[in-house]
Write a structure and sequence with these properties.
By secondary structure, the chain is an alpha/beta fold. It is built from 13 helices and nine strands. Strands 1, 2, 3, 4, 5, 6, 7, 8 and 9 form a nine-stranded mixed beta sheet that branches. The relative contact order is 0.17.
């Protein structure tokens, strides 16, 4: 009788359209705090996603587990904060496969130019044995716990003060890119001279002529107001930027098992939500930059894809790419 009554109540709640509140997750009575570090601006969809996630985590733990967001590199460069996380600091870092390749080389292939054509393809890769084995190596051999790796930030394009239509147009052009080999060697193969620096330094570096441009996704470009110092959006779409959130195993292991499961669940859930928002808003960001004076340049995509092959050969990823494509059913 009690079960029947409970089922009836649940049915009435669902039928009424009332929001279903997640059950509170119990811990051990202690309080925990997780800082989330990113170079992205506060207005970026990722940061807004972190705030939504933080609210749910606090509600579900009765305030015993809190998440605080630190945008615009407030806690330092990604590389420095990753090392802090490994040492046991209670911080999660927005990162990518290129940077994770500094710890497990083979995972870097996911960050190579033209490895994937869209978000769905990259998510298929995460179901492969290749991906699962490398995530396991990050945890067991390097002390890095992946909370989720489904935070998609769109395609990256070259942004310059001269139009770029083919790889030859990038000769001698100094382009800011992250320093991981998967990124820098790909950018070099595409014709540019890669320059490593923090994302928040790009605006001033262009003004001071330390660099000639950058390569980035629309959400970050708009957030940094690069339209004030750069004129052309060259639509190369060379990287499909998949980000992840990582913490150190040292800190993660101090959490009650219920809180560990909660963080994995909530970061995965919000990653999917935010990815959908980014995909939807990509054209909107581009339109806003065009409105501010930037011009869109269509490129010889086949020429850029052909040029990217050199980086796969240089880093020893050519055969591995074939094996991954076979596993996900891509020609």
């Amino acid at each position: 009788m009690k079960k029947a009554l409970l089922l009836l109540v649940c049915f009435m709640i669902l039928a009424s359209g009332a929001p279903v509140v997640a059950a509170e997750v119990e811990g051990n009575g202690k309080s925990y705090e997780l800082m989330v570090s990113t170079q992205l601006a506060d207005s970026h969809p990722f940061c807004q996603g972190f705030y939504a996630l933080a609210k749910r985590v606090s509600e579900r733990t009765g305030g015993k587990l809190t998440v605080k967001v630190f945008p615009s590199a407030q806690l330092g460069s990604d590389e420095d904060v990753i090392e802090q996380a490994i040492q046991g600091v209670n911080v999660a870092v927005v990162t990518d496969a290129g940077r994770m390749a500094n710890y497990v080389k083979n995972i870097g292939i996911v960050g190579m130019a033209y490895f994937a054509d869209n978000y769905d393809e990259v998510m298929k890769v995460q179901q492969t044995n290749f991906w699962k084995e490398n995530v396991k190596k990050l945890a067991e051999e390097n002390g890095i716990r992946v909370l989720s790796f489904n935070w998609f930030d769109g395609a990256r394009h070259f942004l310059t003060n001269k139009p770029v239509r083919k790889p030859e147009d990038l000769k001698g052009v100094r382009i800011r890119t992250p320093g991981a080999p998967a990124w820098s060697r790909s950018v070099a193969a595409l014709g540019a001279t890669p320059v490593t620096m923090g994302w928040t330094d790009v605006y001033n570096a262009v003004q001071q002529k330390a660099i000639d441009g950058c390569e980035a996704q629309h959400s970050a470009s708009y957030g940094l107001r690069v339209y004030e110092v750069l004129k052309y959006i060259n639509k190369t779409a060379h990287f499909q930027l998949l980000n992840g959130l990582i913490v150190g195993e040292k800190w993660f292991s101090t959490l009650p098992a219920s809180y560990q499961a909660l963080l994995l669940e909530e970061f995965e859930k919000q990653g999917k939500i935010t990815a959908a928002e980014v995909i939807e808003k990509s054209d909107v960001f581009e339109g806003m930059m065009v409105k501010e004076g930037m011009e869109v340049v269509e490129v010889d995509l086949a020429a850029f894809k052909k040029a990217s092959e050199a980086a796969y050969e240089e880093l020893g990823f050519a055969e591995q790419r074939k094996a991954i494509y076979k596993e996900i059913g891509k020609e």
